[in-house]
Amino acid sequence: GDVYKRQDYFLQVARACLAQVRTPFENEAMRLAELQMDNMRAAMEWFTRQGDWARRAEIALRLSQLCDRLGWLLKATTYLQDALDSALFLDEAQMELLTELTLQRAALQYEQHHWEDALQTAQDALARYESLGSLPGQARSHNLIGLILLRVSRFDEAYTHFQRALQGFMQANEPVWVALALNNLGLLEYERGRFDEATRFLQQAAQRQRTLGDMRGLSETLNNLGAVHQLQGNTAAALRYFSESLEYEAQIGNRLGIARGLCNLGEVLMLQGETLPAARHLLAAMQLFQQYGSPDYDYALALYQRLMLDEDTDARLQTECQNRALEDLLQWARIL
Questions:
Q1: pLDDT (tens digit, 9 = 90+) per residue, 290-302?
Q2: Cβ distance 13 to 61 under 8 Å?
Q3: At what angle do helices 326-333 and 275-291 cross, to 10 degrees?
Q4: Burial of residue 76 (number of CB atoms within 10 Å: 0-12, 13-18, 19+)
Q5: What is the C-alpha to C-alpha distance for residues 63 and 43, in angstroms, rounded to an integer?
Q6: How many Å separate Cα 176 from the centre of its chain?
Q7: How many Cα atoms are found within 13 Å in the side-chain-facing hemisphere of 109?
Q8: Cα 175 from chain centroid?
Q9: Residue 23: DSSP 8-state
Q10: Tens digit of pLDDT for each residue in 251-277?
Q11: CA–CA distances in Å: residue 93 to residues 15, 151, 312, 335
């Protein structure tokens, strides 16, 4: 009856918020998701008590995807485990849901840098999407497999998967994902040291993302353009790209995106010999990485240690950095 409708409503809310990912309405959708998170979790617990495993698995998956998108890696992993527990009770009728669960599991393994596990899980998802005949699912799987192969320097194989993702997204008429695949091809060329090709792919992606209003995607692409310019020794351009990228991440409120942006800026400021601003950016990044459970913490820490601050300065900055809310932390870090 009514109770059921009410719980089902929160599942609909979760779906609706995720449908706005990579659109101009993502910011509002993520704010709404944060506000409704407790209600969604309560609905999940209600479905559990009813023994409605299909709905419990789905709302747990949606919660995992939302937390992932907000940069809450630890929570995303916990919800995914809830979804996998429910999945034991599902049958072939829920094959699409089971496959989406598998792909989300691969994505989280990738974000936790468990490359081998992630690759196996993503290949499993791809095989399932092929048997379902789902073009978008296959393209998303190829895209993730490409990213994992990129991280383990299997560049030629990664290229093949990104190209297949690009073709799949074009066929499925998903322009936002087409831009994402172009960005990933740019990232690949950057890793290969082919900077001109990298810039060409990334500029194409950025142009499409601006037109589509995909601020999240644009932020990722600008970040990569910053990295290309940094490696070519153009620190001024790198700073420009990284700063614009960070502005978008701050608007979206993605904690890990903000942390990565701060870390990248810290590195460029360090290269420019701006020791104190670099230190503040890196400390703020470290605080966020630690808070949200990202393995990128180690990278930021290594950069911070290379600054060789004297003990007094280090102690003063550490104290200043502590216990600041997100906006306050950002303002403190960005004093140039």
A1: 998 899 999 999 9
A2: no
A3: 160
A4: buried
A5: 11
A6: 15
A7: 20
A8: 19
A9: S
A10: 888 888 999 999 999 999 999 999 999
A11: 20, 35, 63, 55
Cβ-Cβ contacts under 8 Å for 267 (sequence gap 6 or more): 230, 278, 282, 303
Residue 15, φ and ψ in degrees, nearest 5 = -60, -45
Q: What is the average pLDDT across 104-110?
A: 98
Query: For 211-239, what is the HEC assignment?
Result: HHCCHHHHHHHHHHHHHHHHHCCCHHHHH
Q: What is the pTM of this model?
A: 0.87
Distance CA 184, CA 163 (A): 10
Instruction: Kindly state the tokens that stand for 251.
Output: 């608007």
The sign of the CA dihedral 187, 208, 68, 164 is negative
- Tokens 């630890």 identify what position? 74
Over residues 58-95, the pLDDT tens digits come to 999 999 999 999 989 999 999 999 999 999 898 888 99
The answer to whether the CB of 275 falls within 8 A of the CB of 307 is yes
pLDDT digit string, tens, across residues 169-223: 999 999 999 999 999 999 999 999 999 999 999 999 999 999 999 998 999 999 9
